[in-house]
Amino acid sequence: MKIALMDSGIGLLAAAAAMRRLRPDADLVLSSDPDGMPWGPRTPEDLTERALAVARAAAAHGPDALIVACNTASVHALPALRAELEPAIPVIGTVPAIKPAAAAGGRVAIWATPATTGSPYQRGLIRDFAHGADVTEVPCPGLADAVEAADEEAVARTVAAAAALTPADITDLVLGCTHYELVAEAIRAALEPRRGATEPVFHGSAEPVALQALRRIGARPEPELPRTGSLTVLSSGREAELPPAAFAYVEGQLLAGVPAR
């Protein structure tokens, strides 16, 4: 089994690590675009061209499925990626987990990039799936960049700024950018002091999207299997190693097979 994942940068680590835990035997292909990142400020047309190039590089390795481990690319490029690669290679997009977060009808906050916050795409998800829930959209300027650089000081600063915009009584928090899942504990720590013993339920996309990829190819989780899967890293189409910033995160350490710090 071979699963490819794509993103502009290291946001794909969370979904890749989830896939490694679910299927230790799966060969993983991580295709990113450091030459063209960040994708967020690009026009939809430009972003789609960058995403297609990254996907083609991954497709050349013959994966059984491709996970678009990037919310922005899923918004703008998913139709083009599916038109080019399917049905030969199933393409699985990443959608913020608004529906499960709102299921209990509590108070939900969605942390997302400034470009996504308030966008027709996100507002449409809220309209369609957040019935009965009180939803607050929280823009997180600079957080994805700080995570990408593994800049702990910048992560702490941007997380604190987003936490200050987050209502103290939320019941659920949606991490609406794949990068944010890499610093979920920092986010949890920033919110917890205001809430005492009660903390919100976090909703990420890494494990759900990995499970969906397995379903699409007719496979199932088998986490007990021996770890025999390989790791291929593509950097703007070139074979490479995991970038140094990846090792700042437990997910990157897991994929590299080194003891977690």
UniProtKB/TrEMBL annotation:
<dbReference type="Pfam" id="PF01177">
    <property type="entry name" value="Asp_Glu_race"/>
</dbReference>
<dbReference type="InterPro" id="IPR018187">
    <property type="entry name" value="Asp/Glu_racemase_AS_1"/>
</dbReference>
<keyword id="KW-0413">Isomerase</keyword>
<dbReference type="InterPro" id="IPR001920">
    <property type="entry name" value="Asp/Glu_race"/>
</dbReference>
<protein>
    <submittedName>
        <fullName>Aspartate/glutamate racemase family protein</fullName>
    </submittedName>
</protein>
<dbReference type="InterPro" id="IPR015942">
    <property type="entry name" value="Asp/Glu/hydantoin_racemase"/>
</dbReference>
